[in-house]
Design a protein that fits this description.
By secondary structure, the protein is an alpha/beta fold. It has three domains: about 130 residues, Orthogonal Bundle (N-utilizing Substance Protein B Homolog, Chain A); about 55 residues, Sun protein, domain 3 (Alpha-Beta Plaits); about 200 residues, Vaccinia Virus protein VP39 (Rossmann fold), CATH 3.40.50.150. Helix content is about 45%, strand content about 15%. It has 19 helices and twelve strands. Strands 5, 6, 7, 8, 9, 10, 11 and 12 form an eight-stranded mixed β-sheet that branches. A four-stranded antiparallel β-sheet has the order 2-3-1-4, covered by helices on one side. β5, α14 and β6 form a beta-alpha-beta unit. The longest helix has 16 residues. About 40% of the residues are buried.
């Protein structure tokens, strides 16, 4: 068979994604080998991540209106151009040959000449040192115009460029060790199992693992020596570690990474882990079992209608949001249809905040967090909450000076914690509210 099975399945799923904006969590069942599964995810996510650029480059190289091209031809060419632009390890001749041959299983034999011509055209351009950097920022980084324009209203030009470029650089997942293991021991154990890990450039206790599947099947992971948590969340929990004390509630706990770390805070006497989804809460329980944690109290309830009679010394409210700070890992978020869809969770966030505030003891804290870049989900929610709830004030993140010295750039003028996506960190926002009486 001349064409590659992985590439065929990738084109199929890319076309499905364009219809539904859905990326599969698992590769097709036909792919049994780990190498094929990794190749599949690399290709599919890369095509989605760079979709606008690749389709712009296709359009420049065809002699007919783009909308008249068959969808499958666009899918095949998107795959081919992605390989030529971004996969240097695949020989150019092999990329061109396999791309052209994909016309056969899709029954597009008359289109072979067009596919070959487009691929050869790009090959010649690249040999002449052509760069896609000639395009405007939204095109060369493959974002929708309205999304980039939103960020320009909220951030400096340099920040917007950094966000867009960072959204196309995902080097792997970030992990942290679990006591009694430290980072060096974790690194060595992974190395012995041939799981490649590199030190995180900012967070000293974190490691970056490129190959997720190798990690998840390793004895290191199975025996609970580490867990997955982005560096921005790790810093957030370092900066708030002195706040977790007494009776603590995590309202929207799944998948449980923050609850796991809060549980280890020295002054936490009781932890209640809540989520609206029983299935997702079960995953939290399983994660804690893998890490050999004593189980906290698990509660299944809607955070807008918490069922508790008691009040808490500290509440974490890591709310559902647009997740626009996680585009590095979840490139499909780039293609959300509209601004209103992007911000569809703001009403829920407000309701969760208002209800959680009812359960904070005097002198207790309510910690609000998102993985969003949108001011409507971050600063504006904070401001509206303070205006409506005069019993609460902002407790600045600058309270822990020793730790803050390493992360001062992530604390805003108003004392909130904010991370702009980079090549090694997701976007994140948090504010601490103190119930002053």
């Amino acid at each position: 068979m001349a064409y590659d099975r992985v590439r065929f399945l990738v084109v199929q799923d890319f076309l499905e994604f364009k219809k539904k904006h859905y990326l599969p969590d698992t590769p097709p069942s036909q792919l049994k080998k780990d190498q094929d599964r990794r190749f599949y995810f690399h290709l599919l996510q890369g095509m989605v991540r760079h979709q606008r650029l690749l389709e712009t480059e296709i359009q420049r190289r065809v002699n007919k209106p783009f909308h008249k091209l068959q969808g499958t031809v666009i899918g095949i060419l998107t795959l081919g151009l992605y390989q030529l632009f971004f996969m240097d390890k695949i020989p150019v001749r092999a990329s061109i040959y396999e791309t052209v041959e994909l016309a056969t299983p899709f029954r597009l034999l008359p289109q072979k000449a067009l596919i070959n011509a487009v691929m050869r055209n790009l090959q010649r351009d690249l040999e002449k040192k052509y760069s896609y950097q000639v395009h405007p920022l939204p095109i060369r980084t493959s974002h929708q115009d309205w999304m980039v324009e939103r960020w320009r209203q909220a951030y400096s030009n340099d920040d917007v460029q950094s966000i867009c470029e960072a959204n196309n650089t995902f080097e792997g997942i970030t992990i942290r060790p679990v006591a009694p293991w430290n980072t060096q021991q974790l690194y060595q154990m992974l190395k012995e199992e041939k799981v490649l890990a590199t030190p995180h450039p900012i967070v000293s206790q974190a490691l970056i693992v490129e190959n997720t599947s190798d990690l998840l099947i390793s004895s290191v992971f199975i025996k609970g020596a580490c867990y997955v948590q982005d560096a921005s969340s790790q810093i957030f929990l370092e900066l708030t570690q002195n706040l977790w004390k007494g009776f603590v509630l995590d309202v929207c706990a799944a998948p449980g990474g923050k609850a796991i770390q809060i549980q280890t805070a020295p002054h936490v006497t009781n932890l209640v882990v809540n989520d609206v989804s029983r299935k997702r809460l079960l995953q939290v329980c399983q994660n804690m079992q893998r890490l050999q944690r004593n189980p906290p109290v698990f509660v299944v309830s809607d955070g807008r209608f918490l069922p508790f009679a008691a009040k808490f010394d500290a509440i974490l409210l890591d709310v559902p949001c647009s997740s626009s700070g996680t585009i590095r890992k979840n490139p499909h978020i780039k293609w959300i249809a509209s601004e209103s869809e992007l911000l569809s969770q703001t009403t829920l966030q407000k309701q969760l905040l208002e209800n959680a505030a009812r359960f904070v003891k005097p002198e207790g804290v309510l910690v609000y967090a998102t993985c969003s870049l949108e001011i409507e989900e971050n600063e504006q929610q904070v401001q509206k909450f303070l205006e409506k709830n005069p019993d609460f004030i902002i407790l600045p993140f600058a309270t822990n000076t020793a730790i803050l010295d390493s992360y001062r750039s992530f604390v805003t003028e108003k004392g909130c914690y904010k991370v702009i996506p980079s090549s090694s960190m997701m976007g994140f926002f948090a504010a601490v509210f103190l119930h002053k009486r």
